[in-house]
Amino acid sequence: MHLIASRRALLLAAASATLLTACGGDAAKGAGVTADDITLGAANAPVHVVEYASATCPHCAEFHESNWEILKREYIDAGKVKFTLREFATAPPQIAVAGFQVARCAGATPEEYYTRLGAIFSQQRAILGPQTMQGAEAALVRIGQLSNLSPDEVRACIRDAAGTERVQAIMDDAQTRGVDSTPTFFVNNEKASDDFRTPDGMRRILDAALANGA
């Protein structure tokens, strides 16, 4: 699992690989609801999945590749699950924040947000490959253009300081909830086991949650 970059690294937008090794939080607090949540799915869906993820986390990209289509088709689109991704910044944190800013750019709807995130996860290697902010920005501009964002819009969103402040606030809150790595999943406010990262494990956990709520 990809450990979360330190608070200082995020605030300074440094390309540091410094990691948190202790959370000091209480997982029993659950995932809760935050003001910055972008949730996909029916509001009255009986199961709420919250994923803490980073745009630069390889394991998060792997989850998207292996599980997302199943999760969306069988559970979200079927009205069984609503899904929220909480934004974290793992190394390099400034690129992670930039990715989230592009996903949210120009008042994105939930559908637009998750479509853009999907593209960012799918092209994560191209984004990180140049190992520079300039190279990552060029890749993010191309992704933005696929959803009809102009290069100027993408660059303005990336440079908006509110993005760093938002992600830092989400990270600070999540540490009080016992989150110290990405991806971390909560299902109806209970932290899920790592088995959730596999398609079969995800189905088993979601089906159990649906049965408990029946």
Structural write-up:
- The chain has a 5-stranded mixed β-sheet with strand order 2-4-3-6-7, with helices on both faces. Strands 1-5 form a two-stranded antiparallel sheet.
- About 10% of the residues have low confidence.
- The chain has a single domain, classed as 3-Layer(aba) Sandwich (Glutaredoxin).
- It contains 9 helices and 7 strands; from the N terminus they run E-H-E-E-H-E-H-H-H-H-H-H-E-E-E-H.
- Helix content is 50%, strand content 13%.
- The longest helix is centred in the first third of the chain and has 19 residues.
- It is globular and about 50 Å long.
- With 214 residues, the protein is an alpha+beta fold.
- It starts with a strand and ends with a helix.
Briefly say what this structure is.
With 214 residues, this protein is an alpha+beta fold. The chain is built from nine helices and seven strands; from the N terminus they run E-H-E-E-H-E-H-H-H-H-H-H-E-E-E-H.
